[in-house]
Records
---
Amino acid sequence: KAGVTQTPRYLIKTRGQQVTLSCSPISGHRSVSWYQQTPGQGLQFLFEYFSETQRNKGNFPGRFSGRQFSNSRSEMNVSTLELGDSALYLCASSGEPAGRNNEQFFGPGTRLTVL
Amino acid sequence: AQRVTQPEKLLSVFKGAPVELKCNYSYSGSPELFWYVQYSRQRLQLLLRHISRESIKGFTADLNKGETSFHLKKPFAQEEDSAMYYCALNAGANNLFFGTGTRLTVIP
């Protein structure tokens, strides 16, 4: 099976712009989670989608949003970019709907740089 | 609120020596704990989960609810074990709460 893919791999934006990142889960996986990784804060959970519904949301401002399509592909959007949004954004998919003790399969990440 | 603490940012051991990566957690519910690993230039991947109670690549981890710990251990470290290790707590449906990670270096 192909792994989790994320596009684009690298992005450079300026403050105030918005950005959309895409994630394709492993075939058959319906849960997609998003994480932000920074040197200062480490790995932080953004949100999780299952069957097009957001089930969980982390402690991030409303500028961070996401959605999931019927084919389980997911996008996350960040509006009004700030310098502090520069990070590696990781997507992970899981094949278990209950979300308990599940293995999450991570993508390679999208490196976002905000200038 | 949930918390995962990995007190060591860096850990160096000699090849063949035992290794222990510490992880302590704070969680009001029934904990589900994992160790994830990231080798150089590779993706973050699951190493083991407490529910499985298995040994992966020679590593084991036992959940100690009394001490709220989930330390990762291996009796004889190998050079290929050098990597970044993250302890994680499942705080909801596929919502992983990560520790800050420990970079393990195995010295030949």
---
Amino acid sequence: GAGVSQSPSNKVTEKGKDVELRCDPISGHTALYWYRQSLGQGLEFLIYFQGNSAPDKSGLPSDRFSAERTGGSVSTLTIQRTQQEDSAVYLCASSLAFAGSGGWVFFGPGTRLTVL
Amino acid sequence: SQQGEEDPQALSIQEGENATMNCSYKTSINNLQWYRQNSGRGLVHLILIRSNEREKHSGRLRVTLDTSKKSSSLLITASRAADTASYFCATASNYGGATNKLIFGTGTLLAVQP
């Protein structure tokens, strides 16, 4: 595709349910990022994948959060036993090279998660 | 955790005026990037400045970087109503064993009045 895509665009769930958020990065991009943005706030780093290296999971807020990246392409962010404080926009981004090398980072439109 | 702090948090100016936003960060970096986020969700990459650069221009944008003060500024000249958005700085670093994740500042909300 032309850009980073995410699905679903909106997700409403009940407290305690599990959710899966999907990210399709730009083809060929080796770096993939997940961020979370609460209303009116900045972007909170969650997890970073770079090629075949072990992901940097240092931003995941609890063990209810996990992410996978299959075949170096599509990524899924899973939130188990959702809580109301998990409500936010979840943004995925990808880049051809790692950010430290100056690779431009392209963002998807995000998934708006609402936990009732 | 956030790497950068931006000020002001909000800025309101008239069309045609210049807008300056500042960003401070805490650790050594490889580069610093500025992004714009319009109401909605997507972020758009604006400009990147490397740690060995001091100033960079792109159209109506001018970015400066002072690594000794760990700060950067974004200047938008001759602002337009369409520049109304939130602006974020983001730093990339692989120092101290850190991976090359991009860490964002808190953002500045710019409103340009027509």
---
Amino acid sequence: AQKITQTQPGMFVQEKEAVTLDCTYDTSDPSYGLFWYKQPSSGEMIFLIYQGSYDQQNATEGRYSLNFQKARKSANLVISASQLGDSAMYFCAMREGLDDYKLSFGAGTTVTVRA
Amino acid sequence: NAGVMQNPRHLVRRRGQEARLRCSPMKGHSHVYWYRQLPEEGLKFMVYLQKENIIDESGMPKERFSAEFPKEGPSILRIQQVVRGDSAAYFCASSPASGRWASKETQYFGPGTRLLVL
């Protein structure tokens, strides 16, 4: 079974508007961490934001925020005030368990920001 | 503080040749992970290494693939007798520690090596 599901293959957003990227996950482990990475056309993987399963508050990092809904097993990324440089592929990833280290990635969502 | 370094960035090989991909982790990081990204897909875990130890190679194909992280020098992912299906981007990541994490222990990725097998 897929551990991470990203159902939106591609999205368009107008510059300066907000965009929400969906991510649902599947795990039976009560301890896990959720990550979002950005992959621009140049190909590198850039860490954006992290949410722990026991964190009480939604994570925020600058223009990035994570809408964590534990009961629904969703961890959507919100990018506010989109910029042209935000055009990239975005991956949601999960690490399960206190002792685990492997990241499981979703298939990604391509975001294109329009001027 | 230099990030994770990988070389070469691009590698072209003919079927049957060997590919050697190198990864130098971030300064202070002793844990290295290799992932493979096939076209239009997310990254898939291959192997986790610490210095001179392979901790988990459950994601690595049983044949032709090997990895090492010697006491001195970079981590090496080696693919022998490459086939067209090996064409992919190979990413290395590093972290300062692993297991029993109380905080995020983020894995930081290198720029990747794009392998093309002709």
---
Amino acid sequence: DIQMTQSPSSLSASVGDRVTVTCRASQNVADFVNWFQKKPGEAPKLLIYAASNLHSGVPSRFSGGGSGTDFTLTISSLQTEDFATYYCQQTYSNPPTFGQGTRIEIK
Amino acid sequence: QVQLRESGPGLVKPSQTLSLTCSVSGDSIGRGGYYWGWIRQHPEKGLEYIGYIYYTGETFYNPSLKSRITISKDTSKNQLSLRLNSVTAADTAVYYCARAQVGHSAPLENWGQGTLVTVSS
């Protein structure tokens, strides 16, 4: 299975901060990477698909980048509703696998 | 707007079979273009892709669970089903059904709210 490793595992930030989460794949996954937001008690929400494409209805402060093995999720100006856990996922090779998650907390 | 809703027993005894149903509204699981999958999240841990089914009936199962799982569909009821045999405490998790668009990166666009299944005697 392809391992997806996220960093950091958690971070503290303030409203208005620019935040970047990194995801590294154990082998080349081209741009077959999706990003999800997860809040306690809620279903995951798709933010970014195919590494850099913003899903419909997702605010433009979210952006994704990268290809091959290294990927990023950036929130340009953190809002209150963005405090959550974020997961990357690769779908290049079965089984699809997720990163372990990055928790963004209020500083 | 497609909606998915998981249902099933919240408590299952060890060694028994976990059975969950996902009811879909707003789309037909008999229509092509989407995979219909199951994903779970163990308490305080990450997400694990269990498997999916296509409208043709083609299935994919995560090799880590393949010997114990069956994913099926009932097009007449517009429902998916998940069966997981010989459960242990390690199968305690929130189980989600979701719809993924066929194509590049197959993103899981729509999710159910999830249902917590606890394996305990």
